[in-house]
TrEMBL record:
Taxonomic lineage of the native organism: Bacteria, Pseudomonadati, Thermodesulfobacteriota, Desulfuromonadia, Geobacterales
Organism (species): Geoanaerobacter pelophilus
EC number: 3.2.1.41
Family membership noted in the UniProt record: Belongs to the glycosyl hydrolase 13 family.
Domain annotation Glycosyl hydrolase family 13 catalytic: ranges: 275-626
Keyword Signal: yes
Name of protein: pullulanase
Pfam families in alphabetical order: Alpha-amylase, CBM_48, PUD
Catalysis performed (reactions): Hydrolysis of (1->6)-alpha-D-glucosidic linkages in pullulan, amylopectin and glycogen, and in the alpha- and beta-limit dextrins of amylopectin and glycogen
UniProt KW keywords: Glycosidase, Hydrolase, Signal
InterPro entries: Carb-bd-like_fold, CBM41_pullulanase, GH, GH13_cat_dom, Glyco_hydro_13_N, Ig-like_fold, Ig_E-set
UniProt keyword annotation of Membrane present: no
Length: 754
């Protein structure tokens, strides 16, 4: 063909007499070429091509007897594609440790390390400078005194540029390039002590600017066949308004005026979680000024809704950028980036305002992080960093950030340390720049996520912020995430949920026979015999975004499909969630007895306000009991052994104490003082069961709550020793107590006068 190519080789393999071996697919002919000279990069080989598509490899000396490069370093050269007048590249560069063909001279690494360079800079106030694995400075960091530091992790790139509104979007490949405006990043030694971190300060850049990275070499070919790609920043805090371009945006978190300087994250024993969708929580309320937005939730926070309800923590479903419009069935779990806040919900400062307002009302804020998979629709990380050039045309390979598939999308490679660094950085960024209190991690079972990563994440985030709250969805629950128990990762308790759904619908649930006495007591004692090591490890719930509401589930048993029955069961389910040892969680709308299938985020807000709903009025009083009384917040690894917890009713006991029936009762004595003592009673049978109660202290026991009413003592209510429902005991026992069908009770010791 008469085409000639110059091939440059860095010879970091150390060959004393470097040679180039060339072969052509489907042909027996080969070339064995000696270097014709050297340049500043290394040996240079001149190749007269027999075909425009060929493969090659470097070795030591002529023939086949000398040392060769290692396996996986076969390189392939092919002509450019796209334009009709496209030409074969006539000059390429190769590194001895990589199989990539570089279309331009790869940048040489700086003698300085990334960490040392970054220590000479001063970030703007309130910003997180990424430091997991090493001080890396990745993303876009506004600096004190002006300018923005840009950083990209790319271990295989030849050259990296940042381009954006600050330089007229000038970069290699521009239709009318102006090289004097190019902003080329420098290569520094970063993770693992090797060159892989690209950094540059751009004095002209400022908050509000949009930008992208341009990478030459070490990437898939573009539509013109060039080994050049434009990338959205993996550390982008926000994306621009154009959903087609998806430009990254420079954000200055220090511009927000926080007022939560005295806020302290509550102990996990104080948590009452309220899971919600940012969109779904307010989009159905005509009284909200900004429905479906961060600002809509803030309106409800400022109005005192959550304080009236009694919850202490808002558990927000995913906030990371989601590739698609919001809707009643959009859960947001197919995220595309880990640091970028979803544009549909509002700005970064809108989220800060939400958190600041929540803290001002005594509410913790927990974010849902999806680290097991990403979207297949818009996915900036997919094939962004190829680990080998063969991955370009392999549909099963997603590059560095991915390893295989999940049922929901591309599986994130959480077993890789550099991928872990990004995910941990994303959490630290949220802690620093948004003041959040913790995280819930989606689908952490070992089928989907490496547990070495989860444990590293727990260790490093706890060191970074000792009060951080960590919760995992791990179905079925695995014990290794408990760590030491008290400092372990809380888990959504699948045993509690599944058992409760079967008990409430009085039949088989999810193809399993949970409607029996087996493990009945265990789920209320923080599932200790099943997976947990401490009350901190269990989050109890009867509904979530993944699970149908109690009313919806109960109606699937046609015998129970009556309005009064469904409400009764909903009350029993919420009651059990609040009294079980561990952390209680309710899903938005559960306080109104919303009848809803799983994976639905929309619900109808009461037209006349929450107070018009009878279940809400009861639920708010019940939840506030959990919030007020130490007996309902008992924490520890073995409360039964310390005398704080003791069973008084159960299927395993004699007939007078519930034997053979789906009933439970336990006594709570959290302190030496009788005033703190309580008794909880439950009946899951569809008939009355008569039992004897071992209250444990003589005197008057007030009924604070049952399935119909909840009435606290002053100042929260007007309950007193004169209430007709109070139990009077002269010896600490009460015989012949009737537990009606599907009933529940909380009694509190109030006076030693029987």
């Amino acid at each position: 063909m008469g085409t000639h190519v110059s091939i440059h080789y860095d010879n970091s393999a150390g060959f004393t007499d470097p040679y180039l071996w060339v072969w052509y697919t489907g042909a027996a002919v080969t070339d064995d070429l000696k270097a014709t000279g050297t340049d500043g990069f290394g040996p240079v080989f001149e190749v007269d091509l027999k075909r425009s598509d060929f493969s090659f490899k470097f070795k030591n000396g002529p023939g086949t007897s000398g040392a060769w490069e290692g396996a996986g370093l076969d390189r392939r050269f092919r002509p450019l594609k796209g334009a009709p007048d496209a030409q074969v590249m006539t000059e390429i560069w190769c590194r001895a440790d990589k199989a990539f063909v570089y279309p331009t001279l790869p940048a040489a690494a700086e003698t300085n390390t990334a960490a040392n360079f970054l220590r000479t800079l001063t970030p703007a106030d309130g910003i997180y400078l990424p430091d997991t694995g090493a001080l890396s400075g990745l993303g876009a960091t506004p600096l004190k005194g002006g300018g923005v530091l840009f950083g990209l992790y790319h271990p295989n790139a030849g050259r990296v540029f940042v381009f954006g509104s600050f330089n007229g979007w000038q970069r290699p490949g521009h239709d009318t390039p102006q090289p004097d405006k190019f902003c080329e990043l420098k290569l520094y030694r970063g993770y693992f002590g090797i060159p892989n971190t690209w950094l540059l300060v751009v004095p002209e850049a400022k908050p509000g600017d949009e930008y992208k990275f341009c990478v030459q070499g070490g990437v898939a070919s573009d539509d013109k066949g060039r080994f050049q790609q434009y990338f959205t920043d993996p550390y982008a805090r926000e994306l621009g308004p154009d959903y087609g371009l998806n430009n990254s945006k420079v954000v200055d978190p220090g511009a927000f005026a926080w007022t939560d300087q005295h806020w302290q994250t509550p102990d996990r024993s104080k948590l009452i979680l309220y899971e919600m969708s940012v969109y779904g929580f307010t989009e159905g309320d005509k009284g909200i000024v900004n429905p479906g937005k961060f600002a809509g939730i803030t309106e409800r926070i400022d109005a005192g809704y959550f304080n009236d309800l009694g919850v202490t923590a808002l558990a927000l479903m995913p906030l990371s950028e989601y590739p698609g419009p919001q809707g009643s069935t959009v859960l947001g779990y197919s995220t595309s980036l880990f640091c970028a806040v979803e544009r549909d919900f509002g700005s970064c400062d809108d989220l800060r305002h939400l958190v600041d307002s929540a803290h001002g009302k005594g509410l913790a804020v927990i974010l849902d992080q999806v680290f097991n998979h990403t979207s297949n629709d818009f996915n900036p990380l997919y094939k962004m960093i190829l680990e080998h050039p063969d991955e370009e045309f392999n549909p099963e390979e997603g590059g560095l950030y991915f390893s295989g598939k999940t049922r929901w999308g591309n599986r994130v490679a959480t077993e890789k340390e550099d991928v872990q660094n990004l995910l941990i950085d994303a959490c630290k960024l949220m802690l620093v720049e948004y003041h959040v209190d913790g995280f819930r991690f989606d689908a952490t079972h070992t089928d989907w996520m490496d547990h070495g990563f989860v444990l590293r994440l727990a260790r490093e985030l706890s060191a970074f912020r000792p009060s951080v709250i960590l919760i995992a969805e791990n179905l079925p629950n695995q014990q290794d995430l408990n760590r030491s128990g008290y400092d372990g990762v809380s888990q959504w308790s699948d045993p509690f949920h599944d058992k409760m759904k079967a008990l409430l619908r009085e039949a088989v649930f999810d193809n399993s026979n949970f409607y029996n006495a087996d493990k009945l007591a265990d789920i209320f004692y923080f599932s200790k015999s099943l997976y947990a090591a401490h009350t901190n490890n269990a989050v109890n719930y009867v509904e979530s975004h993944d699970e149908s509401s109690v009313s919806y589930e109960v109606k699937t048993n046609h015998v129970l499909d009556q309005p009064a029955t469904k409400e009764r069961k909903a009350r029993l389910g919420l009651f059990c969630t609040m009294v079980a040892l561990g952390t209680p969680m309710l899903y938005m709308g559960g306080e109104f007895n919303v009848e809803r299938d799983r994976n639905i985020v929309s619900f109808d807000w009461p037209d006349q306000g929450p107070g018009s709903n009878g279940l809400y009025r009861w639920a708010s009083r019940l939840i506030r009991l959990r919030r007020r009384y130490p007996a309902l917040q008992i924490s520890g690894d073995s409360p039964a052994d310390t005398g704080q917890f003791s069973w008084i009713l159960g299927p395993w006991m004699d007939q007078r104490h519930g034997g053979g029936n789906l009933v439970l009762g336990w006594r709570l004595w959290p302190t030496p003082f009788a005033h703190d003592a309580m008794v909880v009673l439950l009946n899951f049978e569809n008939r009355t069961v008569t039992v004897d109660l071992e209250l444990g202290a003589r005197g008057t026991w007030l009924k604070l709550a049952d399935a119909d009413n909840a009435n606290d003592i002053a100042p929260e209510g007007n309950n007193s020793v004169n209430d007709a429902a109070a139990l009077k005991s002269s010896d600490g026992r009460f015989g012949g107590f009737d537990l009606p069908s599907s009933s529940c009770f909380i009694y509190k010791w109030e006076s030693d006068q029987a």
